[in-house]
Amino acid sequence: MRILIQRVKEASVTVEGRTTGEISAGLLLFVSFEECDSATDLDAVAAKVSRLRIFDDENKVMNLSITDIKGQFLVVSQFTLHALTRKGNRPSYIRAASPAIAKPLYEQFVSRLGQYSEFKIQTGEFGADMNVALINDGPVTIWIDTVELKPVN
Question: What is the pTM of this model?
Answer without folding.
Answer: 0.93
